[in-house]
Amino acid sequence: MKIGEFLVQQGLINKFQLKEALEAQLIFGGHLGTCLMERGFITERQIGKVLSEILGVGYAPPEFFEKIPQLVIETLPDKLVDRHLAIPFRLQDRILDTAMVRPQDLAAGDELSFASGYKVKPWVAPEARILQAMERYYDIRRSVRYVTLCRDTDKPRHPAVPPEVPSGHKAHEVQGQRPERRPTADAERLSAPIAAATATEVLAPPAESDPLSGLSNALLHAESVDKVSELVVTHGMRTLERCIVLLVKKGAAFPWQGRGWPCDSSKWSHVNFDVTSEPIFSLLDGEDVYRGPIPREPKYLHFYRTLRLDVPKEVIIAPARVDDRLVAVFYGDGGTDDKVLADDNYYRRLVRKFGFGLNLVESRRRLLFA
């Protein structure tokens, strides 16, 4: 069961709060729990215990991160901590207890075990708490968004679930005020500076066996955002039959670059999809990657009718962000007969590098004209 559905079923949030959090997650990134906590809909311990129950692993509460021995911290290199969002907090009997954002990622657990030399026992903790520990113990910088969230979370807080909103009314009408909204992302000008964590990811030379090492080196020398997009699409085609990058600006997604399409892509010049209402983007449902079939409901077929494409057997959809803003959506599929070849983590890293590449190009432009 999806985390959002479980939270609604348990009465911890209502469906209107879930919808608001999912829309925020798509635009601003972060995990669903982060977006719910930011809005005061749920506490850190509530989301932690829910994640523990759904994923079948232990929950690591805030006090587990307060005084982690240096010997434990040294068991994992910062590069892997950053890649897998994982914090070791206890070592006993050659078992390394490690809090992770995605404890169900078996490949990540194997890599952490190999690097540390210990058997890794995965625990789960909310994203914001793990990022706080990454900055404290590994000097991996987090964005202001997570600094603010942890500061507010550490204060006494007692969120209440508001009543269900009657049909035809908006949540702010019932609560008596309009919630503050962040401006919609506009990828036409990427203005965010490169954060320290971004520089670490981009500039640290990856291992030669890394299938994305070639992309990293190419992105370092890309001179335009169009070149960055082209490189990502080219790399994506190694594991896909069709691939497209959609540029996001002012709340709409526009086809930017793509390959493998049987039709003339020039016919897409006036095509756009509303980011928060296009059903195919809703398949992400709070996750950072969607991988699977397209449901055969009519609403999901709009995307393919608009682009004049056949419905594939399996798709991969992943949002690319810069400084917590959605700037592009990566879409790929295996055509009508084949499946997507690479694993989910490959595409997570691909779109992460995509965002870093866009940020790097824009930061160079700003430096030249400063």
Describe the structure.
With 370 residues, the chain is α+β, with helices and mostly antiparallel strands. It has a domain at 196-369: 2-Layer Sandwich (Beta-Lactamase), CATH 3.30.450.40. 41% of the residues lie in helices and 16% in strands. The protein contains 16 helices and ten strands. It has helices at residues 3-9, 15-28, 32-38, 44-55, 70-73, 78-84, 106-116, 127-138, 144-153, 171-175, 196-203, 213-220, 225-236, 279-282, 302-307, 344-369, and strands at 58-59, 86-92, 95-100, 119-124, 242-249, 252-259, 273-274, 290-292, 315-322, 325-333. It has a six-stranded antiparallel sheet with strand order 7-6-5-10-9-8. Strand 9 and strand 10 (325-333) form a beta hairpin. Helix 2 (15-28) crosses helix 3 (32-38) and helix 13 runs antiparallel to helix 16 (344-369). It is globular, with a radius of gyration of 21 Å. It starts with a helix and ends with a helix. The model is unreliable at 157-208 (pLDDT under 50).
